[in-house]
Amino acid sequence: MSSNVITASVGQTEARPWVDELHQWLTTVDHKRLGILYILSALLFLMIGGVEALIIRIQLMHSHNNFVSPEVFNRMFTMHGTTMIFFVAMPVLFGFANYLVPLMIGARDMAFPRLNAFSFWLSFLGGLLLYFSFLGGSGLYGAGNAPDVGWWSYAPLGARAFSPGHSSDYWTLALLVSGFGSIGTAINIIATILCLRCPGMKINRMPLLVWMNLVMAGMVLLAITPLSAAQIMLLIDRYLGGHFFDTQAGGSAVLWMHFFWIFGHPEVYVLIIPCFAFMSEIIPVFSRKPIFGYPVMVAATVCIGFVSMSVWAHHMFTIGMNSYANSFFTLTTMAVGVPTGIKIFNWIGTMWGGRIQLKTPMLFSIGFLFQFLIAGLTGIMMAASPFDWQLSLSYFVVAHFHYVIVGGILFALFAAFYYWYPKMTGRMLSERLGKWHFWLFLIGFHLTFDVMHIPGILGMPRRIYTYEPGRGWDTLNFIISIGAFIQALAILVFVANLVISYFKGARAGNDPWDAWTLEWSISSPPPAYNFATVPAVASRRPLWDLKHPEDPDSRYE
Amino acid sequence: MGSTLTNPFGTALALFRSKLGGNSRAVFWCLNHDKKLVERCPPSQKRLKSNGKRQMLARRTKSTLRGGWRIALLWSASASALWALKPDSASGRGTNIFSPASTPAKSISDLSAFVLVITGIIFLVVFALLFYSVVRFRARASDGGREPAQVYGSMQIELAWTIIPILIVVVLFLATARVIHAIQDAPEPPGALDVIVIGHQYWWEFRYPKLGIVTANELHIPVSDLDHSTPTFLRLLSADTDHSFWVPELAGKTDLIPNHPNRMWMDPQREGVFLGQCAQYCGTQHAKMLLRVSVDRAEDFSAWVRAQQKPAVEDPSAIAGRRVFEQNACMNCHAVGGTPADGRFGPDLTHLMSRATIAAGAAENTHDNLRLWIQNPSAIKPGSLMPAMKLSDADLDAVVSYMETLR
Questions:
Q1: Distance between CA atoms of B334 and B341, rounded to whole angstroms?
Q2: What is the pLDDT of residues B242-256, one digit of tens each?
Q3: Which residues does chain A have within 8 Å of residue B259's beta carbon, measured at their own beta carbons?
Q4: Which residues in chain A have their CB less than 8 angstroms from residue B262's CB?
Q5: A295 interfacial to chain B (CB closer than 8 Å)
Q6: Which residue has the higher pLDDT, B296 or B26?
Q7: The domain A18-555: what is its CATH number?
Q8: Secondary structure element (H or E) that encloses residue A287, with its range
Q9: pTM (predicted TM-score)
Q10: B108 to chain A: which residues are within 8 Å by CB?
Q11: Residue ranges of the domains in chain A?
Q12: Torsion over CA: A390, A396, A401, A407 (sign)
């Protein structure tokens, strides 16, 4: 059989010297290897961004602390934000999409494997460019260092008058280059989903993960393009004498804000929708029930995709828009809470009446539901624009979006790691370390980000390197910093789990979770060609049909 | 909980229960491909024994208690920790957004309380559903590995949890739109005080165009009472990068953006000093761009205005310091009324000693701080745009004594 021949050649590959192995990884166009490369590069940048966060938290531990200078502090929060959004969250989600989408739709690779490799290396190059600024950029006051203009680099702070040297050029180029990589991957995901589905996988039978990644990829196309355009305009301003954002020559600072946030808000959904996707696969399997309201989940996702394109200016409630604009963006922002709420209800509906197995992926999923609920509600508070005039630019906002990004996205990602690691490596992650990781991270997270809302209510603005004593902020900031270190400890447990389990974890087998989607029908890790014979499906849960021939889903769809 | 809100939720909950049933019901519903509800009896459910059910109930009560106890402990611990940390805003000089002292801040605070109550209720309802389903539907050894009933959804339930949130959004939006209009579209009454606020890296310039006053970092405005309102209207400009004017107890923040003039107003009903600071990241020393608003009684305010309108005091004993000031670069950036010094890049120093702080609130206005600031600004505010003037000790002392005559 052909599979035997290929197995034999895989055996030979393992015997090759490590240089050849490395060469294979660097030149691969296999969607699974590229997916893993995306994930590994994101983990690398997660460590770096995490260290930057710890430096920020040490500096803020008490008032008038002198751990770092204001210049260094400003670089740290700029690099932390840019790194975490562009070089951790996006790549890791693209990595999972790359790995899972072809497997879930029964395809042998992405539609454009070479474009896939090109996109990954562009994104990675972007990250390297950003960090090269530590060596090659000369920042404010000729200090020769990383950008310090904030992760949204508001005009005119990014203009040459206020940001001389090359540090913000590296920021611009990093975002531009990795943006092209993201656009390439988005095109690839869309083409793959539309063209490479296996026989029987009609568009309304795709797993929800595939549906949601389709919406995510569409949003990437719409969101990244204005950002790239704005970066090119900024470069024209800085080097070719343009005046788009150069306020000293009559340019518009507000124009930059619109460009940035018409990228920036859809970006939030670009990040959270793949996490909805993880939840929509993991919660059903560990509740032992199909997703509740599949068509409504799809409709809600598409609805979020559209509505979230028209909410960007809620980041700009304080810039002095007129009352009609403020009212409009208040309404659209609150409206986007409706489809999001429907999703939460549907996940609870999936758990309702199930047999919930509290394994580590499910623990992280429940953590996600709890934290995402709170993040959504604080979001509604800030959607009420007058409330936002107080909360915006304060630590309340910082707490809110970390609730989304850490409490939501990162928890969902951890769930995905524990769920799909066996498929990627053939080994189970340790449940014992997993529970340690979960509880430590949960405690650290809540210590940090629950408490962080309060200094915002007490008037503490974000991005300040120090503060005056006697404002009631000291103790709160101290607790927040302690929580950050507990989270860092939990991340170390997680990384230890990834490494130890790779060598010593229990063998996973094809289908350790008794799951229902196509990737679990093949060996772990899957062979290079994925499926020896292209599968055919008759329902949304092909493996359920296979395991329950007496009561298949296909009878009810 | 407001009855208008609990009732729809209660209805949804009842629907939810009747449709999903839980383990004890052997009848389940699902959507078939014709989108009609069909009754479906899963084979696995038929074998459920009543005896097993009773045992499960006992086990469940125990584990519910254990889980509930754990979470209650966690919550009460964090709540009491927060209570212990609750800052004392009554001691004054607080910046709590929930102790408003002026109409815009008050209406924001009221709206915020309303939004908090609604979102709080939503949180309680959804959290209860989540908590209940995790505890109630946990897998147990007695399940014997059977699959639960396979339920695919229900259009009625989906409609319920679509329409109710839409109604909540409509209510919240209408309440919010009223406040937006009331604050943003308030007309300026004839008796209002006009102030132009100009944001600089990293200090505030205040100009009173009708009164001919220029000052810095410490804004003086009159107290306003509800019967005889004397609000202050601020016109917000920027000389360089974006800034944001935020005094939480007086009003929400508004940005100062170059080429984009903004407006905000406040009518403080309490006297005292209100603290705030720049809220929009504006460069290296964003953190020490502090802001003080002194709300004065009417007569105190007019006295302050009269004092500020005078030119600088000419004290012959400080003539040496004045000479140093005018022969060095000081006067290129700073203005002193009635002298040749008319620089506009730094704060106006005509009445420097009437201010409680220097360096935009970074230090108290004392002799030692003033000396240190002129000698080495980075010691107080690293990254500040004021250069170290490298004066000799004698010149330094002379300039400081000159500054101290500028009352």
A1: 7
A2: 999 999 999 999 999
A3: 247, 250-253
A4: 319-320
A5: yes
A6: B296
A7: 1.20.210.10
A8: helix A253-287
A9: 0.88
A10: 386-387, 389-390
A11: 18-555
A12: negative
